[in-house]
Amino acid sequence: MAAPGLRPGLGRLFEMPAALGRVRRAYSTSQAFAEVLRLPKKQLTKLVFPLQELERHLVPDSKHEFHLKIFDPSLEDIARAESIFTATAQNRIEYLSSAERLDHAPALPRPEVCFIGRSNVGKSSLIKALFSLAPDVEVRVSKKPGHTKKMNFFKVGKYFTLVDMPGYGYRAPEDFVDMVETYLKERKNLMRTFLLVDSVVGIQKTDNIAVEMCEEFALPYVMVLTKIDKSSKGHLLKQVLQIQKFVDTKTQGCFPQLFPVRFLLDLPCSAVTYSGIHLLRCFIADITGNLKTHGFQFS
Ligand code: GDP
């Protein structure tokens, strides 16, 4: 049985010293995650599952509305995903190229995931955090209004390609129609779209354009909630419940579990600056077919 207050994956681990040994071996390539494992339980839970602490503020009736555990991998799975995201001589993680149009995009056989969101939603910060185990990767940022915006392709070893789509905002939907829409509609190897939503302001009109596109093309997509450190617990809870309700009632293709992320600067662990990132890495590794995890309750 899981320790009180812990998700099953974490609970299992803490009860079994042998499992912890196995996990540590699985991380031999991931120094950062080995450090994470040394954190006290409470901090470890907060780091891997940032919404967990909000759950206790929910009234019992609304607990079922909060789908925290649909993707519930073990720490062993998370460790395997960390090694996929860790650059080594054998596992090259690098920027490949940029393209303004789909027909200029590299033809790549590997599965692909893409990240889209409004300008300023925290997309570059998130992608930098995802690549923090590959310090040579440079995430390019082009923010000037009117500046040509491009899709940026990153190779993650032999495993998958990650695409950073231009932020929408100033000139949406024009940029979208020309580039993003064509990409979403026609990219054959696109496995999942990660739609970033600012948790402080919730789903905005422009976010709806992206939602409608994913729905229209019947794409599987996931909502990532950024900046969850910026609101009070009460405001965050309200926003999360609203977004969850939107996902449950207004969407077909959106994965029911929300993936929250935030800067986390108060941990005594220099390598860790973002909470929620480990679960997100594990989810990406899984849906690109690189982990045979049993982490899904259903999919
Ligand atoms: P982009 O335009 O979507 O690429 O957004 P950026 O990653 O450049 O982030 C926009 C602003 O939000 C920057 O000032 C970031 O420092 C800030 N930001 C991004 N993520 C977070 C977060 O999780 N928490 C907080 N407090 N600020 C964030």
From TrEMBL:
This is GTP-binding protein 8. Keywords: GTP-binding, Magnesium, Metal-binding, Nucleotide-binding. GO terms for molecular function: GTP binding; metal ion binding. It comes from the Eukaryota. It comes from Equus asinus. One of its GO terms (cellular component) is mitochondrion. InterPro entries: EngB_GTPase (IPR052279), G_ENGB_dom (IPR030393), GTP-bd (IPR006073), GTP-bd_ribosome_bio_YsxC (IPR019987), P-loop_NTPase (IPR027417). Belongs to the TRAFAC class TrmE-Era-EngA-EngB-Septin-like GTPase superfamily. EngB GTPase family. Its cofactor is Mg(2+).
